[in-house]
Amino acid sequence: MSQRWIGVAFAAAGLLALGAGMLWQQAGNEATASRSTNADGATLFALALPDVAGKDQPMAQWKGKVLVVNFWATWCEPCREEMPRFMKLQEQYGGKGLQFVGIAIDQADKVQQFTTNMHLNYPSLIGGYGGIELSRSFGNALGALPFTLVVDRAGRIVQTKLGPMKDEQLQPIIDQLLLTSSN
Q: Which of these ranges, 3-7, 45-49, 72-76, 112-116, has the smallest mean pLDDT?
């Protein structure tokens, strides 16, 4: 009899895990497709966050560029996996008006060591653990990482993405924004 209850408990746990996974997937898809109504490009450009040296960096310094803002952490494996692609795109399109900016949900010393070891070619600002709440204001309902915003040259948030941003998702957006803003 007790083995039967153990089997029932495992089956119930499996169903709960399946349901949670389906909710996570659905929430992730909704977060990808929608933009926050709480914050916009003006809110983003009003921010100033410290860099790894502790110097405040105003987001407004990148106004007029196609901006990709990525919320990440050193302990986040999907975040670390997408960074080399971001570095490649920064190198390829930086001269055409593209700017990546990382907002790290981590301690400055860990971020500095990580970005130095990685030879990161775009700025990484320190959002600290409060950076999750900041990302929520831009539509990251789950407060998960990575979370990415794409902002056009006019300062409008045109795309948000919860989870890793794949090349086939990001490349067309960048190409379109750089093309339309250069005409």
A: 3-7
pTM, two decimal places: 0.78
pLDDT at res. 11: 41
Other residues' Cβ atoms within 10 Å of the Cβ of residue 182: 9
Q: If you count them, how many residues does the chain have?
A: 183
- Mean of per-residue pLDDT scores for the chain: 84
34-182 carries CATH number 3.40.30.10: yes
Which residues make Cβ contacts (< 8 Å) with residue 159, sequence separation at least 6?
35, 148, 149, 150, 173
Instruction: State the average pLDDT over residues 68-87.
Output: 97
Contact present, 122 and 99 (Cβ < 8 Å): yes
| Residue 138: DSSP 8-state | T
Look-up: residue for tokens 């907002």? 103
Cβ within 8 Å of residue 90, ≥6 positions away:
98, 99, 100, 121, 122
Q: Which residues pair with 57 in a beta bridge?
A: 49
Tokens of 111: 């971020």
| Predicted confidence band of residue 10 (pLDDT cuts 50, 70, 90) | very low
The closest alpha carbon to 171, from 71, 89, 84, belongs to 89
- Give the single-character DSSP code of 8: H
Domain boundaries, the chain: 34-182
For strands 98-104 and 66-72, give the pairing: parallel
